[in-house]
Amino acid sequence: MPPPKDVVKIAIQMVGAIPQLIELQQTKPLASVLKDVCDAWSLPNAERYALQYADGRQTYITESNRRDIKNGSILRLTTSPDQEAEQLYIGIQSKNVDVKTDSLKKLASLSQDITFAQEFISRNGLKQIYSIVEEGNDAGEMLAHTLKAFTELMEHDFVSWENLSTVFIRKIVSYVNMNAVDASIQQLSLSILENMVPTSRLLFEVVKKEVTLDRLLTHLQATNAQLQLKAMALLIALLLSATDAERRDMMDYLREKNIRQFIHKNIIHSSEPLGDEMAHYLYVLQSVSLNLCEHRMKMSMDPYSQEQRDLLQSLRQTAFESESEVPAGTFSTERRRSLCAKEFRKLGFMNNSNPAEDLRRAPPGLLALDNMVYFSRNTPNAYSRFVLENSSRDDKHECPFARSSIQLTLILCEILHIGEPCSETAQAFYPMFFGQDHFFEELFCICIQLVNKTWKEMRATQEDFDKVMQVVREQITRTLNLKPTSLELFKTRVNALNYSEILKLRQTERLHQEETLAVPVLELREKLKPELLELIRQQRLLHLCEGTLFRKISSRRRQDKLWYCRLSPNHKVLHYGDVEEGVQSPPIESLPEKIPVADMKMLLVGKECPHTKEKSSGKQNKDVLELAFSIVHDVEEYCLNFVAPTRYEFCLWTDGLNVLLGKEMTSERTQTDLDVLLSMELKLRLLDLENISIPDDPPPIPKPPSNLNFCYDFSQAEQ
Questions:
Q1: Is 679 helix (H, G, I), strand (E, B) or coil?
Q2: What is the pLDDT of residue 395?
Q3: Domain of residue 32, CATH code
Q4: Nearest 5°: phi and psi at 684?
């Protein structure tokens, strides 16, 4: 008979004593449980003791979290949080250096626990932390423990960052700005400032003023990877908290200092592999930089702006310079206007009498004009060749430069997600972005020449404009998916992917689709599906057994805390626990927390998850909703919450968990994998039928012949 739901069997340890095996009544007050445990060991003053987990983070057991205790858990009897907080509060004020250092070290460890942190902060413990830092008498290991304890205590959000004194902030800043400081202290100081920046405008301005971009660039050039990472984290925090104007100024300054080339050479192409955290920061830096184009992208052309009209006229003058050199008095105003309209028509504007009308559509707005002007000024030969080559044609096969540029700019904005908010988890950046200043404009210059090349290959007319741009989009997307490391390599590959190659790819895909739509093939597909779905199920469970590294994300900032989750080899228990940065695949024994698969009730995804509902303040980040899932276990109020690092991991984990729950796999990845496996299996099965057309209906079975009488009669043989 199974034990009652409110009873869990646990072990309780104490140093120097034989462990107790007890049945914990969850309905019994925790104080009574502690008294019984203390009485068994003849310990007086039970109120001075508390229970905590013996493994993992060693969290204190309280009335609020006691329901998380599972059968088989090992707890430890230890000093209560309030007693521990009192002792450490006194210890960190000790004149004895060894006592003070040990107290600070223990404080840094215990501060991760929310119960202890609450007790320590209620004793005005943070004031003592401030004093140690502000006085500046301690250094080295003692200071590192102090800063670590401060970081952990502030993580619980009991105290506002805005309460920090100016002296404290300046002291933290000084550790970042000084050269002769231990790297661990600089890392912690950078992390504190990173946490501080998003909390208020005032703190952002203080940090931006005190920690210069030059100083952050110096840290980025350090050989210490962790110091480099923390410096990049603070830089990203400053960029995300800045106003549009401040962000533009900061990016301009970073461009002057050649930060892109440095990142391209020393971080992306470093001998050390790129970590997930750094990959995310590089993605954000790329996204922030590209989003500087958003303002121009959303701004329509103002026909009354002299500056914009001059830019428009410069396009005409650069293309038709010799024709424009005719003295002003030679033609009448009307004739001159007619000549300009003709030249704008040759440039490919739809409204040649008033070309500004073509640029009223936003997006791409003035960004298209900027791109055209950049192309004409930085590659004048290619620009003139494009325009003159097409303007001299009268057979309706001319490629309209302006119209193509406007549409191409819009396509590039969509592909590069310009104007979209930064994802909190994405790590997908283009290495070639950091190898080139004016990346967007240079990419446009390559792609507009690709438009002309593809136009000629397709022998297109004006009616084919949308088809050409569709092919160009496909060429760009397919090439970007290859992640070229430089624009030169992108140019080589995108030009190699000409129209005939696109046709071959499309034809292959179409033939494959036609083959798979024949009735006998569809029947074969249905027969193969169950076997292949079982193969996918096994792969999903195998992936869960290997495990995945997840990040803890709060509404305040991107967390740098990690935790790992994996399924036991017998598929009966999910093991999870916190891990340190750099740990790739921790052994299952090192993960203290566990959930029996039998206790799992349901899987929640997206908006249904409790950790997405909690983030009620501000606009919910779209990517977090797309990557969030939760496991409901025991009773509905207990959930294990996840935010997958990628959409791929989200699909594999949700599929695997559905398999464990005995439900259908519902992710889009399941369908993709099934299609790939079916395609491979069908090709192997139909290999002998190549070039043989498969009829929709099976051939008729002929009638049996009239002389079908050759059966052997055994009854006669026996006689």
A1: helix
A2: 63
A3: 3.10.20.90
A4: -65, -40
